[in-house]
Amino acid sequence: MERKEKEDIVGGLKERLARASGSFVVDYQGLNVEALTKLRRELTKADIEFQVVKNRLLLIACQDTETAVLKDYIVGPCALATTYDDVVTPAKVLTKFSKDYEALEIKIGQINGRIVELAAIKRLAQLPSREVLLSQLLFSLSGVPTSFIRTVSEMLRRLVTVLEAIKRQKA
Question: Are residues 146 and 95 in the same domain?
Answer without folding.
Answer: no
